[in-house]
Structures are given as C-alpha cells and as structure tokens.
C-alpha cells in the first residue's frame, strides 16, 4: 500500500508482515534452545567451571552461542512479524549548520536579556528554524 502524501509524518509505503507459521515454530524452538544454553551457562558458572582454562573457554563458547541464538530469534521476528513501513521525513540540506562562517569563528559574547536564547541556539542548532 502506497500513499502519495509528502507532508512530514505521512506513511509513504506500508507492507504488512508475512506472519508465517514456520517462522513462529522456528522462534519457539530457538527460544527453547536459548533456555537450555542459558541454563547450561548458569550451571557452569555456579559450579565453578570457569576456574579451569578449558572450563573458561567452554563458558565463553556457551555465552557466544546464547547471543548468536538470540540474534537469530530477533532477526526472524523482525523479518516475519514486523511490517515494512516507510515514513516521510523532513529533509535538511547537508551543509546546513555544519560550517561556521568566518565572522563567527571566535564565537559570540553572552550578554543581555537573550542569554538563555543564545545558549539554546548553541546547544540545539535547529532551534526555531
């Protein structure tokens, strides 16, 4: 589904998620595998496997497997269960507020009643533009 709106915040493209059953089953199985590996890592940590060189490498491998499995779960979830949405965003010129003019190289003196306004402009350069 596409819209032709070009104002800020309009949805330009929306494709619904596939939500396949095979992906849901894969996520459930990978989650069960994740629980097993977390249990093994916790058991090894509590029982002192990390005190030997081989046990320490084994615990490191288990921890790596835990995070790789979690990455696969999140990747499948993102691919299969989240919609693809493109939102129109506000464009800014690349050179806008990136360069300082020569007369502003030394900065400005903070003085007068507008001190807080000057600080806001220095901290957030897109303030009131």
Descriptive key words:
129 residues; mainly alpha; two-stranded antiparallel sheet; 3 helices; 2 strands; flat; transmembrane; membrane
Number of strands: 2
- Taking pLDDT < 50 over at least 5 consecutive residues as the criterion, the unreliable ranges are none
What class, by secondary structure content?
mainly alpha
How many H/I helical runs? 3
Please give the share of residues in helix: 40-55%
Beta-strand proportion: 5-15%
Rounded average pLDDT = 80
Which word captures the global form? flat
Give Rg in angstroms. Answer: 27 Å
Order of helices and strands: EHHEH
The major beta sheet can be summarized as: 2 strands, antiparallel
In angstroms, what separates the terminal alpha carbons?
Answer: 33 Å
In the sheet with the most strands, the strands line up as: 1-2
InterPro entries: DUF7318
Keywords: Membrane, Transmembrane, Transmembrane helix
Transmembrane segments: 21-46, 58-77
Task: Describe the 3D structure.
By secondary structure, the chain is mostly helical. The protein contains three helices and two strands. A two-stranded antiparallel sheet has the order 1-2. Helix 1 (21-47) packs antiparallel against helix 2. The longest helix is centred in the middle third of the chain and has 29 residues, at 53-81. The protein is flat and about 65 Å long. Pfam families: DUF7318. InterPro entries: DUF7318.
């Amino acid at each position: 589904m596409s819209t032709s709106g070009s104002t800020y915040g309009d949805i330009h493209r929306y494709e619904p998620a596939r939500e396949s059953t095979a992906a849901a089953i894969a996520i459930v199985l990978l989650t069960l595998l994740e629980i097993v590996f977390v249990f093994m890592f916790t058991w090894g940590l509590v029982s002192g496997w990390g005190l030997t060189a081989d046990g320490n490498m084994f615990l490191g491998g288990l921890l790596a497997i835990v995070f790789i499995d979690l990455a696969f779960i999140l990747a499948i979830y993102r691919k299969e269960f989240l919609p693809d949405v493109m939102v129109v965003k506000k464009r800014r010129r690349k050179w806008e507020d990136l360069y300082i003019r020569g007369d502003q190289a030394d900065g400005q003196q903070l003085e007068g009643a507008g001190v807080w306004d000057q600080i806001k402009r220095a901290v957030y350069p897109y303030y009131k533009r």
